[in-house]
């Protein structure tokens, strides 16, 4: 992992930098936002055509300014917490080993990624935890094992409740940040049921 962006001028002076070179270099790097911004803004693909970057997905995806979705690997990397000012971690899974620093808040839902699991029964407790991070103006990481199903379900339900989104709208926003997001069929049905519940509750107001 790079603590600072790679100096661009040094890469330009690399002996592989000639336009007609037949040699290539593979760089493996964590998907640290600051580094990825440098790659894009400095147009590395144009100026460094001999360089191929293989990004390792460690950093989470930002759904809201304070809410991030990630995997268990994200929750094992304290640099992520420091870089993104994450003080709250919501773990949705059983037996997932995470790293929590002193002063952080950690909530665990020991749920398996099975369609028959009851996710909706956890929504209100999850919302309170997420709102605590928002009110403190700190980041929250919501994660499961891969960050595709269980954590996505919690995030989607929160968007539906807090932002008055439909299930489709919530999933669309999440997939803009994390395209592989895909709750299992049971969780998707719970989200649709939750949408109907919210519609009925709002109609009463």
TrEMBL record:
Protein's name in the database: protein-tyrosine-phosphatase
Organism: Strigomonas culicis
Enzyme class: hydrolase
Pfam families noted in UniProt: DSPc (PF00782)
UniProt domain Tyrosine-protein phosphatase: residue ranges: 59-200
Gene Ontology annotations for the cellular component aspect, listed alphabetically: cytoplasm
SUPFAM superfamilies: (Phosphotyrosine protein) phosphatases II
Keywords: Hydrolase, Protein phosphatase
Keyword Hydrolase: yes
């Amino acid at each position: 992992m790079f603590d600072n962006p790679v100096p661009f001028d040094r890469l330009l002076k690399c002996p592989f930098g000639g336009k007609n070179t037949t040699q290539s270099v593979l760089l493996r790097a964590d998907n640290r936002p600051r580094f990825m911004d440098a790659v894009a803004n400095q147009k590395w693909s144009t100026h460094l055509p001999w360089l191929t970057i293989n990004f390792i997905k460690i950093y989470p995806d930002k759904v809201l300014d304070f809410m991030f979705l990630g995997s268990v690997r994200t929750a094992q990397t304290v640099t992520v917490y420091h870089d993104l000012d994450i003080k709250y971690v919501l773990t949705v899974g059983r037996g997932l080993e995470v790293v929590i620093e002193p002063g952080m808040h950690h909530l665990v839902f020991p749920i398996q990624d099975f369609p028959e699991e009851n996710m909706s029964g956890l929504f209100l407790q999850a919302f309170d935890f997420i709102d605590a991070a928002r009110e403190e103006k700190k980041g929250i990481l919501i994660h499961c094992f891969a960050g595709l199903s269980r954590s996505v379900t919690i995030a989607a339900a929160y968007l539906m409740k807090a932002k008055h989104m439909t299930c489709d709208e919530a999933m669309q926003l999440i997939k803009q940040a994390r395209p592989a997001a895909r709750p299992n069929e049971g969780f998707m049905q719970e989200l649709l049921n939750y949408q109907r519940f919210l519609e009925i509750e709002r109609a009463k107001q």
